């Protein structure tokens, strides 16, 4: 896709009087190595290239995408899209000099030998199976994602960028007396195979295997409202769901977020300082530029309980009459970019973990969490706890089965009672309007004074 | 690169069999908030799922373009995967003429959606009325190196509506979705009135105590439970020992009132398909009969590994189309009367796909709904958690309603009355 073509498509996109037009051209490749039953069972691959065109008119976004990349088809889909706009304000577009924001990768996916990838997956399998005879299955995965993109828009912007993601995932399955359990771990980075320097395979796999075995004896308990402790790392899904999505301009601008009118208002205890930072080097949710071609930033969303910033993409910045802050993201050219989180974490505090445990007479200690979801319009959210233990009279006890937590954003932020200093950030995926994208979430150990816990009775 | 060139290049590189599933999708969708367009999207895409054999090994590749790099990728994958099975490639199938593509635009529906805002204006408590409409045409074609060229198509329309109520500084919402193969069958106004009625009832929420209740699972919540059988009954999950339904064929696991079938051959249902992505002809089949599992779900690979035939569930992963609980005779009103007192679970919100655990069957699902007193919806309930497992939930079935409705192409269900299920609040 060359400069002249892009300028021609943008000029066509503006020919019925749109206010603004943008083109996003992308080539991406996903490779997913999956070891199961001690064999490299599949290598799933997905190769895609395509183009997305957005026009905006009077604060409405119109978007089209296609992967049939002939000149004739691209003009056809643009012409279909611009029928939605009818104004005399035409404009011929010329683009500025290409800005190259391509990031260098130390050990690229193609340069890391397949034999070493297989060796790593077999190592995961061997460690888990040696650790316990109750292990019935081990699934090891390596996920490689590479994308290269070009963005051109009617302000003359013409920029190219890339991103490279690597993720290693391991799940250990155990069985005893017809009971089955699973425990998983993962590490992810926006980098190549240099990620392995930070992954202690032996230690991590032994740890999850022991937990998967211990979970077989997990005990049912009666749910209800009680205090909980969330261990560092993925527990931050509570902030991602409870307020992260509600602070995205995609919900704030059309006033369908419970936080739409809360800038500079107190929404949480003073213990809560929430940051979204797309610039953390090689973090799974980082990138040099966002998917609208703007530099990513460190944004303080909540400072000592007060909302300081929303996450604002280019389209919504006009709607909200505020500055954008480099968070326009999308899964691929099939989606229009919108405001999304990158690496979102709760800043460390000064409380001691042992004091948190001692302060609880009856509650739950959540060691590892999985996914969650939220309705930004009402603030109702939930998330699942993979591994949870009972806290009784200030002591951590046995594992519990089937624990989930639910609450409401505005209520729960006022229940954050204690925050420790042991910040940990973990990788995951987030699905929303612009598709499924890599994000990290992080937090130190925290104590929530009251939340609804669901348990198997 | 066209198919002829691609097949020729594959043959030159000693790829002995090659089969392409081409999926073309055209889609238009619009979202309105309070009668104004928020966003409009067109989608015009093509995807290829390629199955190819090299050195007696078969692999699959997903791509949206065909070139020599894809051929090299096939060879790389065949050389490096350990899994060996002899796949089947379609042959001797009469070619089916490709249907004419359906062209559509959604201008009329945008106007209908704009006009629905008049209902919002009647109620001062309604803060936002969000509506969404999409129309999708997709054609799936299978073409291979044996000269096979067959296709099947589908046309789908979806309407969603969400009403957000602001009451004393707190927000509550209620939404519904319908899926239809014919947009004329969507009654936009009727659904809008129903959603507004329930949203207004949901303004006031009671906090319920944590205990066991008799419940009704609304059709869309029950549909999600049916959907979980995709993972649990997948022959791949069974073979890999990661399903709670391993070794459970023909055993009395659930209520004898539970009958689940898969019927991709019914053109009126949204998951209509003549064949799966491997070209296996689909057919109406019993999945669960009187509470006993009748079959696992196989694609060609998994069937070959256990010396069986594919059940026509070979899509991108093993999956169903139009799998549903066979409806009973009671209307929604009669089902409520039968419940008398309990909880009507109208909606759910999942925790990133882990709320229903396919490994041990545990269910821990955030639920929204209404308190039922004397057979009538009384008031909303505070969001709660339903904690059970698939065996308890489907064993305790008392009645199944007649209101089967599709909100997905995969699964559907009528509403179900179930006794003694734990709800935490």
Layout: helices, strands, pairs:
The complex is a heterodimer of chains A (about 450) and B (about 425).
Chain A: H1 3-13, E1 20-36, E2 39-57, E3 60-66, H2 71-82, E4 99-101, H3 114-131, E5 135-153, E6 158-176, E7 179-189, H4 201-214, E8 224-230, H5 237-244, H6 249-252, E9 274-277, E10 298-303, E11 306-307, H7 314-320, E12 328-329, E13 338-339, E14 343-346, H8 353-358, E15 362-375, E16 380-392, E17 395-400, E18 404-408, H9 409-412, E19 416-419, E20 424-432, E21 435-443, E22 446-454
Helix pairs in contact in A: 1-2, 3-4
Chain B: H1 3-12, E1 17-33, E2 36-54, E3 57-63, H2 68-80, H3 107-115, H4 117-121, E4 126-144, E5 149-167, E6 170-180, H5 188-201, E7 205-206, E8 211-217, H6 219-227, H7 229-232, H8 235-239, E9 260-262, E10 285-289, E11 292-293, H9 300-305, E12 323-325, H10 332-339, E13 342-349, E14 362-373, E15 376-389, H11 390-395, E16 397-400, E17 405-406, E18 411-413, E19 416-424
Parallel strand pairs in B: 7-15, 8-13, 12-18
Antiparallel strand pairs in B: 1-2, 1-4, 2-3, 4-5, 5-6, 8-19, 9-10, 9-12, 10-11, 13-14, 14-15, 15-19, 16-19, 17-18
């Amino acid at each position: 896709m060359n400069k002249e073509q892009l300028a021609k498509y943008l000029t066509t996109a503006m020919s019925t009087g749109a206010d603004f037009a943008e083109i996003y051209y992308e080539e991406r490749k996903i490779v997913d190595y999956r070891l199961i039953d001690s064999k490299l069972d599949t290598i799933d691959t997905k190769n895609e290239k395509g183009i997305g065109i957005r026009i905006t008119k009077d604060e409405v976004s119109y978007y089209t995408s296609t992967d049939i990349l002939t000149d004739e088809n691209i003009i056809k889909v643009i012409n279909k899209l611009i029928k939605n706009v009818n104004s005399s304000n035409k404009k011929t577009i010329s683009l500025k000099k290409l800005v190259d924001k391509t990031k260098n990768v130390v050990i690229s996916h193609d340069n890391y030998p397949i034999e070493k990838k297989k060796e790593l997956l077999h190592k995961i399998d061997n460690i888990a199976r040696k650790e316990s005879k109750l292990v019935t299955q081990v699934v090891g995965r390596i996920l490689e994602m590479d994308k290269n993109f070009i963005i051109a828009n009617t302000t003359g912007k013409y920029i190219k960028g890339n991103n490279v993601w690597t993720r290693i995932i391991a799940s250990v399955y155990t069985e005893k007396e017809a009971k089955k359990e699973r425990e998983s771990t993962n590490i992810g980075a926006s980098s190549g195979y240099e990620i392995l320097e930070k992954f202690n395979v032996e230690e991590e796999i032994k740890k999850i295997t022991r937990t998967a075995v211990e979970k077989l004896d997990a005990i049912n308990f009666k749910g209800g409202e009680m205090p909980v402790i969330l261990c560092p790392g993925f527990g931050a899904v509570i902030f991602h769901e409870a307020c992260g999505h509600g602070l995205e301009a995609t919900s704030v601008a059309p006033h369908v977020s419970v936080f739409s009118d809360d800038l500079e208002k107190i929404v949480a205890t003073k213990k809560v300082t929430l940051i979204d930072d797309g610039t953390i080097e090689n973090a799974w949710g980082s990138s040099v530029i966002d998917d609208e071609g703007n530099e990513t930033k460190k944004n303080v969303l909540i400072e000592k309980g007060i909302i300081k910033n929303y996450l604002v993409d280019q389209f919504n910045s006009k709607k909200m009459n505020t500055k954008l802050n480099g968070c326009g993201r999308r899964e691929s050219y099939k989606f229009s970019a919108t405001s999304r989180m990158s690496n979102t974490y709760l800043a460390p505090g000064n409380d001691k973990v042992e004091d948190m445990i001692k302060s609880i007479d009856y509650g739950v200690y959540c060691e590892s969490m999985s996914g969650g979801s939220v309705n930004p319009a009402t603030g109702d959210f939930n998330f699942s706890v993979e591994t949870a233990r009972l806290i009784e009279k200030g002591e951590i006890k046995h594992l519990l089965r089937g624990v989930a937590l639910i609450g409401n954003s505005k209520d729960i932020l006022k229940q954050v009672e204690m925050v420790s200093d042991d910040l940990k950030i973990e990788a995951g995926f987030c699905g929303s309007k612009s598709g499924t994208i890599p994000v990290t979430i992080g937090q130190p150990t925290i104590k929530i004074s009251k939340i609804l816990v669901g348990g198997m009775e | 690169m066209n198919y002829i060139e691609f097949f020729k290049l594959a043959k030159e590189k000693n790829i002995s069999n090659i089969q392409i599933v081409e999926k073309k999708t055209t889609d238009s969708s619009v979202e309105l908030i309070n009668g104004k367009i928020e966003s409009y999207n067109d989608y015009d895409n093509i995807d290829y799922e390629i199955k190819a054999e090299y050195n007696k090994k078969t692999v699959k590749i997903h791509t949206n373009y065909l070139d020599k790099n894809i051929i090299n990728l096939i060879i790389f994958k065949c050389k490096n995967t350990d899994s060996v099975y002899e796949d089947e490639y379609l042959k001797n199938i009469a070619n089916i003429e490709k249907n004419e593509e359906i062209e559509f635009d959604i201008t009329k529906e945008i106007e209908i959606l704009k006009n629905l805002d008049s209902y919002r204006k009647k109620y001062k408590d309604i803060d936002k009325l969000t509506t969404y409409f999409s129309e999708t045409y997709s054609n799936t074609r299978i073409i291979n190196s044996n000269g096979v060229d067959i296709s099947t198509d589908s046309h789908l329309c979806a309407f969603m509506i969400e009403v957000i109520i602001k009451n004393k500084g707190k927000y509550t919402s209620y939404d519904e979705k319908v899926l239809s193969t014919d947009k004329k069958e969507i009654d936009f106004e009727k659904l809008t009135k129903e959603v507004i009625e329930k949203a207004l009832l949901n303004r006031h929420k009671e906090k319920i105590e944590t205990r066991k209740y008799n419940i009704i699972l609304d059709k869309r919540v029950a549909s999600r439970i049916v959907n979980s059988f995709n993972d649990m009954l997948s022959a791949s999950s069974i073979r890999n020992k990661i399903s709670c339904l391993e070794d459970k064929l023909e055993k009395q696991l659930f209520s004898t009132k539970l009958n689940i079938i898969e019927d991709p051959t019914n053109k009126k249902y949204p998951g209509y398909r003549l064949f799966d992505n491997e070209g296996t002809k689909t057919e109406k089949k019993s999945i669960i009969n009187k509470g006993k599992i009748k079959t696992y779900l196989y694609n060609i690979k998994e069937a070959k590994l256990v010396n069986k035939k594919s059940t026509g569930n070979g899509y991108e992963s093993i999956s169903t189309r139009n799998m549903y609980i066979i409806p009973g005779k009671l209307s929604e009103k009669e089902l409520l009367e039968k419940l008398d007192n309990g909880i009507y679970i109208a909606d759910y919100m999942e925790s990133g796909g882990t709320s229903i655990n396919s490994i041990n069957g545990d269910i821990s699902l955030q639920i929204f709904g209404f308190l039922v007193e004397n057979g009538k919806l009384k008031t909303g309930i505070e969001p709660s958690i339903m904690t059970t497992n698939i065996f308890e939930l489907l064993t305790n079935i008392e009645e199944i309603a007649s209101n089967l409705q599709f909100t997905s192409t995969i699964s559907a269900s009528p509403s179900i009355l179930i006794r003694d299920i734990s709800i935490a609040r």
